[in-house]
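Re-run with default settings, no changes from the original entry. Doing this only to confirm the output is reproducible before filing.
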Amino acid sequence: MNESILIIGAGHAGVQLAESLRENGHDGTITLIDQGAQQPYQRPPLSKDFVSAQEPEALPLRSEDFYTQQRIELLTGARATAVDRAARTVTLSDGQQRSYDRLVFATGARNRVLSCPGAQDPRVIGLRTLQDAENLRRQLDGAQRVVVAGAGFIGLEFAAAARARGIEATVLHSAPRVLNRSVSRQLSDWFTQAHRADGIDLRLGEGVQSIDAQEDLLVQSTAGESHRADLVVYGIGVLPNVELAEASGLACENGILVDAALRTSDERVYAVGDCANAERDGTRVRLESVQNAADQARSLARTLCGEPTLYSDVPWFWSIQGRHRLQIAGLAQPTDSSMLLGDPGSGKFSIALLRDGQLVAVESVNRAADHAAARKLLARGERITEAMLAGASLKELANATPVAA
């Protein structure tokens, strides 16, 4: 394969795609374009170890000489401003044009911005990029109290990291339960108790109304409460970066629309990672996770190297929530029924999610063996019922001879 492949975005999806193209025998040019000025870096540690460690480690995704050795042209500090699909060219912010045979959007997502009065103060920080995390570390050094807006994964991970540094942490969340868009009610309730037990002042149904930026920050909540802070960190969701794709005429709706082969409405243009809204089992799914980004990239690399592949890997996700490791395998829906596996009081348990009587996802807290077994079972696609789960552990079921779905 000697085609030129141009990838916009050098996050986890873009870098993995470039690497996997070489692994699958692609011999043509590969160009990675990224508007960030630094080498591509890991993002998961930013809200965890990076902000809590005294001396954080560097976070490169690959070694400095990786790109040269793999003959991957890495253009950092270069923003793609226009795509001409008829001419197959991409224009960069410095005016130069790059041609392509195949174009891949790996443009990721960006934070929703806190927009209440007072949110423009420099002590009000979103956490998404390495620059955000470095800024946050500097400001945390002198902080005694923080307010976190949003009790999603990022907000709770950061609040727990702040508590680990001895900083008072108050979390304001407008929804009635934490992680409300991501986990079952049972697990949400358990983490509410766990975080409160670790000293986080967790306020549910209470969002940020305004911020009075004086010597201290005075956060007024929608419940009429006032909370003093040295800084405010927000994690209130993300928006997929689709503006360039939309401007080039590609179909977009909550992400760049792609089929199961990750191809857009233009057969020479593809999308992977957080920006891609992909067909899956008759529905559309846009996932925000490193695993999804990397696995989609590996799948697309096979397609671009002449092995047409439909992306169907089992989604999985992990998060460090203070003292607890949360792992999720599969995709659940709010209407799924749940079944508890293990004792939540021990701090080690799982919750099986079932739809139409069949296992579709497993949430595990400090039970890595359950998570591994769940991924194995879901990948096999066999029918696992509530009765089967009542009679054997996930590990026993995963080690048993598979039966037809």
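The mean pLDDT is 94. The radius of gyration is 22 Å.
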